[in-house]
Amino acid sequence: MINVFQPALRQEELQAVLRVFESNWVGKGKVTDQFETEFANYLGVERTLVRSVSCCTEGLFQSVALLGVGPEDEVILPSISFVGAANAIAAAGARPVFCEVSRRTLNATAESIEEKITPRTKAVLILHYGGVPCEMDEICRLLCEKGIYLIEDNACSIASQYRGKPCGTFGDTGVWSFDAMKILVTGDGGMIYCKNAEMAQQVEEQLYLGLLTKSGYSGKADTRWWEFEISCYGRRAIMNDIASAIGTEQLKKLPDFISRRRQIHEFYSQALSDLEWLQTPPDIPRYVQSSYYLYWIQTRADIRDQLAKHLRDNGIYTTFRYYPLHWVKLHGPHPALPNAEEAAQTTLCIPIHQSLSDDDTHKIVDSIREFGKRL
Ligand SMILES: *Cc1c(COP(=O)(O)O)cnc(C)c1O
Predict the structure, then answer these.
(1) pLDDT tens track for 332-363
(2) Quick one: which of 13, 55, 57, 218 has the fewest CB in 10 Å?
(3) What angle do CA 157, 133, 64 make, to 5 degrees?
């Protein structure tokens, strides 16, 4: 089966893990500190603004807490979002308010957000669908005008930029995922960016039991080093040196990953452009950089599922991201969102990852074209 997503973990990652094993310290330590530093450098932000986290979902929960979102508050997010984003809002006692997406880009827009703003709106939580940035000038202008916080779910958009500025650094917080299905994979893991160092320090304490002193060899005390104080009722949601060692190696390869993905994206768009029953993703604006996380095709609702089945029968796995959250019973009931609903019925994400061979991508295109001949 050709996977829709797949990690690219090789000898370099294995060797880095071996070095961690040999150091006899596999918990959060120097290697994690190094990974955080390199990630901050990669983004071009101050080291003090970035902390690693056990997963991106935890980063979303932390973001919501950090911004003081609670009962009586509303947080707007596109219905085409990761379920953990809505869970984080609802678990804080606030109301997730789902907004529309653009039918072709599947991104929220300033207009679709504005429609849902009420006096209770405390924050907006967006993602950059498939790696293509939202129109950040318009969204930031709107939120700034209204005094509303912005959380950026950057799980799709690790290498994305909008007018030269990295996605994930536009808002009050930004969160990244390194789970098994993302571009940069550490097994599980994530990163959180905060607008200022005080917020990042607060997150660090929340992520490690509220401890004010560092554990392990890094402790400075030379007497009674087992005593401690806490600043808050923190959880334990940190990365460890095994995952961070993998992350450090993956980060070096990220530019190559992105360029391979871009190549595949361009190949699909060119090879499928003449099929009148199918739409390839919209052109990527010249002033942005995508991460090419998803490649999505759109077709008629009555044939989308047959196409998915045909491809699966031919050994090609596809999926749709992200199932509309206003259709999830526990998050409903919620007013209809025609664009999001249409996108959910017509869109299919086909395989795109850095380990795909040219044989794979040709097979995928051939299978799609073959399906078209039978229509
Ligand atoms: C994968 C994903 C997440 C969650 O990441 P984890 O690290 O698995 O918690 C959040 N948002 C989006 C858009 C994702 O694709």
Answers:
(1) 889 999 999 999 999 999 999 999 999 999 99
(2) 218
(3) 70
Residue 255 has pLDDT above 80, yes or no: yes
Query: 254-372: which CATH topology?
Result: Aspartate Aminotransferase, domain 1 (3.90.1150)
Ligand 1: which residues within 6 Å by Cβ? 55-57, 82, 84, 127, 153, 155-156, 177, 179, 190
H or E element in which residue 150 lies: strand 149-153
CA of 291 to the centre of ligand 1 (A): 15
Distance 226 CA to ligand 1 centre (A): 36
3-state DSSP call for residue 42?
helix
pLDDT at 131 over 70: yes
The residues, any chain, with a CB within 8 Å of residue 177's CB and separated by 6 or more, are 55, 56, 57, 155, 189, 190
CATH number of the 11-252 domain: 3.40.640.10
Give the global pTM. Answer: 0.97
What are the tens digits of pLDDT across the range 42-100?
999 999 999 999 999 999 999 999 999 999 999 999 999 999 999 999 999 999 999 99
Quick one: average pLDDT of 123-136?
Answer: 98
Mutating to test ligand 1, I would choose from 4, 54, 56 the residue with most ligand atoms within 8 A of its C-beta, which is 56
pLDDT at 219: 62
Kindly give the number of the ligand 1 atom that is closest to the alpha carbon of 58.
9
Domain spans of the chain, in order of start: 11-252, 254-372
Mean pLDDT of 124-128: 98
Of 235, 123, 242, which Cα lies nearest the Cα of 178? 242
Q: How far is the CA of 55 from the centre of ligand 1 (A)?
A: 8
